[in-house]
Specification:
Layout lengths: L1 H9 L6 H7 L9 H17 L4 H13 L3 H5 L2 H11 L2 H13 L3 H20 L7
Helix pairs in contact: 2-3, 2-7, 3-8, 4-8, 6-7
Length: 132
């Protein structure tokens, strides 16, 4: 039975980036528990499959946590581009950039911070596991 569970966990590890992009800045607005659970599952798949290290994600999250206004979040876009190119983690930083571009309300900032916190938590859970 353990083998079956491991096989199921190994299946479908590709995350739905469109779903994450659409909902990452709307976490506070999600009323449907099933949709929130799906978002959690997609973020976990992202954390599990992305080659970004825990430390790299934690460093990005530290910068995001310091942001107080939406315009400051938008100002992080060039930093993300630089970090992505320097560390060869353009998949994640590209996704974050697209999410930030979609943010246009102050409520989106809080949701984005929650999204990043969830990503850090799931990355920590899967730290040391090889990306698929």
């Amino acid at each position: 039975m353990v083998k079956n569970e491991q096989a199921r966990e190994g299946q479908n590890t590709k995350y739905d980036s469109a779903f994450i992009e659409k909902n990452a800045i709307k976490i506070n607005e999600i009323k449907n528990v099933e949709e929130l659970n799906r978002l959690c599952e997609e973020i976990e798949k992202l954390a599990k499959s992305d080659k970004t290290t825990f430390t790299q994600i934690r460093n990005i999250y530290s910068r995001v946590r310091k942001v107080k206004e939406l315009k400051d979040l938008v100002a992080l876009r060039p930093v993300l581009a630089y970090v992505g190119a320097r560390n060869n983690i353009k998949d994640l930083t590209g996704l974050l950039d697209r999410i930030i571009k979609a943010a246009n309300k102050s409520e989106h900032l809080d949701s984005f911070k929650k999204f990043m916190e969830m990503l850090v938590c799931y990355k920590r859970v899967h730290k040391g596991q090889e990306a698929s």
